[in-house]
């Protein structure tokens, strides 16, 4: 019998074509892992240098590995250049990072993702030395994600250097940049830009953005007390978080979705050409809400995330004033952080204002605060009988209620009971639990006793999917999502 090829010891993988070997190595999604195959044989030494991606996402990746790979790589072009270095003890200088970006630009990647560690800041901020990072033009890149640090000052390319002609998606996090340069590049050198996400930027000067193609704009702590001027006729989504802009002018006639977590003064902050109806509006009570809520008559989805501090004026004045007029909505999401007050009273207040709602989502927050009974001694209206009535809550259209971060506590269970008191014949009630919480049989039976026989009950699902979108401090509201979302 003729021996099998495997038994004969023949290297069948090395007999494959270079093109197929390159495809196999590209599937590793790691340049370092691909480079290690060079020890297999003489033929393998250069195969890895032809893969169409340069990806350094391993914990063991180092600046030296990136240097070596860029020097050895022989493919004329690549699809992806991705570097995520997390070792803070090995900071990357601005000159080195600029060199990598220039090398990447020469390879015309469709995607560029960089996340680079900085040097440790000195104990005395006055001793900090700012480094300039010269950013080259990436004329064929469609998606650019850059997460730097405050010791880098980004120097953007001048108009004469050319355009980011293919760029559709741009995200920048943690850097210093000139507002004039930022606005110039976005407005004049990104002719196809669709989505722009800027987070935690120290911006010198005002920012002016002019774009006919921009559809999504997210500004998260981009400068403080700067002026913001946006003219984007195609803009559909706007997020403003924590900039406290001295003035903001948003000219966006196609705008359908607004997330606003910032001060809003109609004398200084204006929407130009935007209609009075949105698909979605999300606001918070950290700043005065009424002027923004009064700017829009209706939103298909209304998201309110409210923090009500412990003293009576926070409920009697701020909360009641902020919720005196709410846009009409079909779906209402409420995140309540109630300090000492009656959470039942707060929820009932909102439900009275939103009688046309068909779906209600409640994101529960559980701060360690004094009991609501203290309000009885402080003259707070939250415990007055009038504020706790359910017979004046009309929810004829309500069909579905969904709780998130439910713990099974008596207070959480009382809220479930309250909802059934307001609308006995719900079609569906979903109760998603907090992390590592298991609903006891006793709590399960109690909830069932509240429900109408026709109501579909779903109890015990996870709430983890809400953590990225829940806008409350306890659920990572102030945790800026990592902009570099590397795709394997």
UniProtKB/TrEMBL annotation:
Origin superkingdom: Eukaryota
PANTHER family named among the record's database cross-references: FBD DOMAIN-CONTAINING PROTEIN, OS10G0396666 PROTEIN
Name by which UniProt lists this protein: FBD domain-containing protein
Organismal lineage: Eukaryota, Viridiplantae, Streptophyta, Embryophyta, Tracheophyta
């Amino acid at each position: 019998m003729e021996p099998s090829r495997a038994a004969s010891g023949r290297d069948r993988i090395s007999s494959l074509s270079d093109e197929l070997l390159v495809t196999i190595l590209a599937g590793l999604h790691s340049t370092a892992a691909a480079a290690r195959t060079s020890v297999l044989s003489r033929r393998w030494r250069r195969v890895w240098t032809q893969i169409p991606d340069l990806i350094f996402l391993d914990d063991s990746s180092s600046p030296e590995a990136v240097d070596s790979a860029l020097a050895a790589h022989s493919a004329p072009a690549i699809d992806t250049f991705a570097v995520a270095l997390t070792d803070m003890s090995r900071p990357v200088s601005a000159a080195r990072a600029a060199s990598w970006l220039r090398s990447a630009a020469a390879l015309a990647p469709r995607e560029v993702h960089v996340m680079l560690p900085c040097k440790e800041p000195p104990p005395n901020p006055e001793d900090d030395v700012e480094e300039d990072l010269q950013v080259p033009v990436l004329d064929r890149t469609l998606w650019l994600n850059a997460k730097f640090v405050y010791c880098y000052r980004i120097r953007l390319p001048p108009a004469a250097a050319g355009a980011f002609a293919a760029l559709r998606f741009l995200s920048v996090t943690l850097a210093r940049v000139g507002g004039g340069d930022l606005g110039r590049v976005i407005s004049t050198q990104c002719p196809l830009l669709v989505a722009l996400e800027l987070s935690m930027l120290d911006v010198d000067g005002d920012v002016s953005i002019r774009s006919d193609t921009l559809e999504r704009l997210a500004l998260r702590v981009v400068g403080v007390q700067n002026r913001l001027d946006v003219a984007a006729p195609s803009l559909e989504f706007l997020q403003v978080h924590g900039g406290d802009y001295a003035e903001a002018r948003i000219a966006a006639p196609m705008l359908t979705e607004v997330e606003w977590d910032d001060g809003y003064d109609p004398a200084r902050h204006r929407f130009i050409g935007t209609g009075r109806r949105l698909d979605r509006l999300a606001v918070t009570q950290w700043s005065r809400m009424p002027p923004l809520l009064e700017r829009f008559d209706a939103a298909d989805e209304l998201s309110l995330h409210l923090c009500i501090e412990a003293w009576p004026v926070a409920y009697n004045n701020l909360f009641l004033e902020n919720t005196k007029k709410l846009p009409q909505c079909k779906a209402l999401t409420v995140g309540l952080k109630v300090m000492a007050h009656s959470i039942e009273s707060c929820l009932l207040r909102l439900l009275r204002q939103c009688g046309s709602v068909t779906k209600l989502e409640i994101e529960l927050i559980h701060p360690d605060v004094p009991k609501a009974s203290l309000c009885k001694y402080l003259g707070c209206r939250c415990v007055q009988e009038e504020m706790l009535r359910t017979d004046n809550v009309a929810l004829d259209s309500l069909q579905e209620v969904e709780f998130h971060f439910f713990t099974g506590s008596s207070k959480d269970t009382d809220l479930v009971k309250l909802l059934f008191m307001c609308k006995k014949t719900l079609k569906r009630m979903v109760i998603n639990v907090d992390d590592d919480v298991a609903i006891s049989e006793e709590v399960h039976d109690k909830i069932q006793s509240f429900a109408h026989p026709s109501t579909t009950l779903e109890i015990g699902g996870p709430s983890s999917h809400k953590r990225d979108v829940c806008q409350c401090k306890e659920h990572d509201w102030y945790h800026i999502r990592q902009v570099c979302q590397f795709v394997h």
